[in-house]
Amino acid sequence: MKALLWLVGLALLLTGCASEKGIIDKEGYQLDTRHRAQAAYPRIKVLVIHYTAENFDVSLATLTGRNVSSHYLIPATPPLY
């Protein structure tokens, strides 16, 4: 019985440490792949970083809508996962 409790505790611990689906740990940063642009196409030749006047949630909704190509949105304060 003691061994079974130990195994259940270990399984719960490992489950709690699992990374969130769609979050990829890279060296020095995390990549969030949970949001995809509807008009995305694998033709990226240039990466342009520009400022958006809206808050993160409004910008995310805009950049994942129709008639928008692929964008990388960088939050002012990156979330910790």
UniProtKB/TrEMBL annotation:
Domain of life the protein comes from: Bacteria
InterPro entries in the cross-refs: Amidase/PGRP_sf
Keywords tagged on the record: Signal
GO biological process: peptidoglycan catabolic process
Signal peptide: 1-20
Gene Ontology molecular function: any one: N-acetylmuramoyl-L-alanine amidase activity
Name assigned to this protein: N-acetylmuramoyl-L-alanine amidase
